[in-house]
Design brief:
Distance between the termini: 38 Å
Largest sheet: 2 strands, antiparallel
Number of helices: 17
Oligomer: single chain
């Protein structure tokens, strides 16, 4: 409860998240210039999304070349998403204050700098540090892309660019592994980061020339606050929990350090909740969770991101380490998933406009769960033909769920709370990604060690392959159960019909 003496929370009007506050016409820009500016945004969006999954394809090669253990591989992925998650909301607010174009361009420069450092790194810990720096770039760029689309297009013309934005998300995530496979197979993993650098520079050049020079200001009724305590508590909670989960196997789950980190994460979470309940301008407006439909939608969003990273991070490890595919073949093997994800996205948007949102979301999450359950029966000799059906199901489920869940969650709250709701949705989806990598990594490490302990006199490489396959099955089974929980939660998202 807020103390009687506290000031009420200040409201602001952001056209990107408050449609009723946006003007019905965009600045005086020719249609050609609008689409060129949109192209600049899409180059930036493609860069930051494809970069994450293309690097995932190179993880086995990076692990070998830099002599990294599984915990370090997990940190290589988690450091990027942790930075992204912690600073996403903060930089979204910076865009409101200092200008979205400026934040987009700054993010592209930071992304390029982090990619250069990653390309030059010759030590796994140095690479992890530069990947953490790289994650600041998407945290700046992602919130600005949607906001800048509202600056480029009048309200009645935003349907097509918004739809293309959603489709590109699926395409970039899915095509990333193929790009990574092509590059690593023919050259070196370093070239992945040089390509990311070139794309980021192209985003800077195109954005500088083609985007509107000034964004519409956001009207605040008072002095702005960035909730620094909320940011610190949130960052501390995520770092403590992630470190404990990733390092627990190596250091021992009952070691003083790991137990202390779990206790610290719990304390910081409580402090974060208390702070957000009392802050005038909270990082996350926890009052929104009093709405059952909103809470159910948030649970679906977390489980969706949990499964998304599970498939795109750990599947390349199986294909390259257990089945000994080269990176290109590994990327091509998951291509059906990318294709059907891209095709299902627009269909999901159409379906959401014609049915109550809980039905398409629940069906999509169930398809995703069934696909992961299928993959929980992998063997060392599983053929690519055996993998196609689950990849198709996962692709369709991911495409439909990704296209519908954000709109469904936003429809669950009043328009005047849309800005706060957008911040919650974006942040918890990244939190789901971080937890997916960490939790599934724990299952993978524990089960792999158990299998090797049970077969101490096995024959070298074959036993290693079987241990990884056995552990991967258990990890995917956990993932399938989490996604089934998301499918059940989807029935709580019972809102009015979403506008087309």
């Amino acid at each position: 409860m807020r103390a009687p003496s506290e000031e009420p929370r200040r409201e602001y009007s952001d056209p990107a998240t408050h449609p009723e506050a946006a003007p019905t016409t965009a600045p005086s820009i020719s249609p050609r210039r609008r689409w060129l500016g949109f192209a600049a945004l899409m180059v930036g969006l493609f860069t930051l999304l494809s970069a994450s999954t293309s690097v995932n394809t190179a993880l086995p090669v990076l692990q070998h070349d830099l002599h990294a253990n599984l915990s370090q591989v997990e940190w290589l992925v988690d450091s990027y998403f942790l930075t992204f998650t912690v600073f996403l909301t903060t930089f979204g607010r910076f865009g409101d204050v200092f200008g979205r174009k400026r934040m987009f361009l700054t993010g592209a420069v930071v992304f390029a700098a982090g990619s250069v450092g990653s390309a030059l790194a010759r030590d796994i810990n140095v690479l992890i540090a530069f990947r953490a720096l790289t994650g600041l770039g998407p945290a700046m760029m992602m919130p600005a892309t949607l906001s800048l689309i509202t600056n480029l297009f009048p309200l009645k013309e935003r349907g097509l660019p918004m739809g293309l934005w959603g489709s590109l998300v699926g395409v970039a995530i899915g095509v990333g592994p193929v790009i990574g496979g092509l590059v690593v197979n023919d050259t070196s993993w370093m070239w992945l980061f040089w390509i990311n650098t070139a794309l980021a520079i192209a985003s800077v050049v195109m954005g500088s020339i083609l985007l509107p020079s000034r964004s519409r200001p956001v009207q605040f009724s008072g002095v702005q606050s960035l909730d620094p305590l909320g940011i610190v508590f949130n960052a501390g909670f995520l770092l403590s929990l992630s470190y404990a989960l990733v390092e627990g196997h190596a250091r021992g789950w009952t070691s003083p350090l790991i137990l202390g980190l779990f206790v610290s994460s719990a304390v910081l979470l409580v402090l974060f909740v208390v702070r957000e309940m009392r802050a005038r301008e909270p990082m996350l407006d926890l009052n929104l969770f009093r709405n059952p439909a909103f809470s159910a939608g948030i649970l679906v969003a977390i489980t969706l991101s949990f499964g998304l990273l599970g498939i795109f991070v750990y599947m390349p490890l199986f294909l390259q380490n257990a089945q000994h595919h080269d990176p290109l073949r590994s990327g091509l093997t998951v291509l059906p998933l990318a294709i059907f994800m891209a095709l299902a996205g627009p269909f999901g948007g159409l379906l959401a406009s014609r049915a109550r949102p809980h039905w398409p979301i629940a069906t999509a999450m169930l398809l995703f769960s069934i696909g992961m359950f299928w993959l929980a029966h992998l063997s060392v000799s599983s053929s690519w033909q055996w993998l196609v059906p689950p990849f198709v199901m996962i692709g369709i489920g991911l495409g439909i769920a990704s296209a519908t869940i954000n709109n469904a969650v936003m429809a669950a709250v009043p328009r005047q709370e849309a800005g706060a709701a957008a911040g919650v949705v974006t942040t918890v989806r990244q939190l789901g990604s971080v937890l997916g990598i960490a939790v599934l990594g724990v299952v993978l490490q524990e089960q792999q060690s158990r299998y090797l302990s049970a077969h101490p006199h096995g024959h070298g490489q074959l036993v290693q392959d079987l241990a990884l396959t056995h552990a991967m099955n258990d990890a995917f089974l956990v993932c399938a159960a989490i996604l089934a929980l998301g499918a059940l939660a989807a029935f709580g998202v019972r809102q009015r019909r979403i506008a087309a």
